[in-house]
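Q&A log
Question type: sequence-to-structure
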Amino acid sequence: MIPVPVLPGRRKLGGVMMNRRCLLYVLALALMAVSRPAHAQVASTLLRECQIGLQYMSGYSVFPNSDWSKHWSGICTGYISGIFFAGPQAKLFCPPPEADNKMAMFTVVRYMQSHPDRLSLPLPAVAVEAMSASWPCK
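Response status: OK
Response body:
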């Protein structure tokens, strides 16, 4: 068997080549999932705003408490969009090619509604769980 050379910027890990960018994504997601900011963004505090963000993405423009709801729905959308972008590259989940941010939002909101026991966790951790459950890598 001929040994495969390790190219610069790549690391051999368990026989699988992973570039440093992928490792950084995994590290960033792991830190987001376990870190607690000064004002922890737990899933329960953002469920309503995530629902509002999903409605906005679906074409509705009703925002109760206008600026406040826009702010928090934006935070929820940002969390989920960032995880949706980085997760497949880190092989945390494997969405279908037609998946987009709106589908990711719907997946996470539906998961939070059906798993109320997970709402005490940080939103990034719940979002990764939701997308992993819906789109496992094979």
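Response note: The two ends are 27 Å apart (CA to CA).
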